[in-house]
# Entry
Amino acid sequence: MLVSSLQMDIVPGDPAANRANVAEAVRQEADSTRPDVIVLPEMWTTAYTLPDLPFTADQPGSETIPFLQKLAATHHIHLIGGSIAWKENGDIFNRALVINNHGELIYQYDKLHLVPMLDEPAYLTGGRHKCRIFELDGIKMGVIICYDLRFPELLRDLALQGAQVIFVVAEWPDARRDHWYHLQIARAIENQCYIVSCNRTGSYNGTDFAGTSMIINPWGHVLGEGHRYHEQSVHRTIQPDQVSEIRSRVPIFESRRPEFYP
Ligand SMILES: O=C(O)CCC(=O)C(=O)O
# Structure
């Protein structure tokens, strides 16, 4: 399976401009690289314009989901559609979207862990549902959002559900780039699965973002790594058979003693 992560800058608070940019980036990537899966970053319609989200968030009937569905079907690619601000019944969630190459929305996930450093809890509601796996082309996958990466129990739960690939969509700041880099490798090693991430580039409101989107194999080798500052596509072929191969070589899932820890 060929996977492309499109790390990109985001126009603050302008969903229409960002949809136009995403449409063009996906078209170019589909035509040049011909990937099976394309991954977008976190909150790519609005960036972190939190006080404005009541006016700019998507809601039932809004444009972004049909836009992504059409994009996926037109180019016949699976889309890990990053995340968008989603307003429903007075709450705003940070919602990840997964759309298959027929244009069907097959999975959505609301970010469970809100970021105190960004004052997210003042503007967003944390997810109310467990993070679950989904399947694309018979491969078991999960998606988490940015700060979720700091919670090893969340990714372990996905691995225990059978995830062979975990996508991380993000707006991770450059000030903590070391954490971003090493936590992804650690999560790949400890869960013996692929990690594929898409982080934004550029700056907003005095914060520079870290780029460095990554594709890491279940042994913890970095197969692909994006530039720290520039927009680019990071694409590699992943081989989900490696997950079972490495899990049998170092059988940590058989050695677990869950009766002694939560
Ligand atoms: O955990 C971090 O350092 C960054 C998290 C973050 O920026 C986010 O979740 O959007």
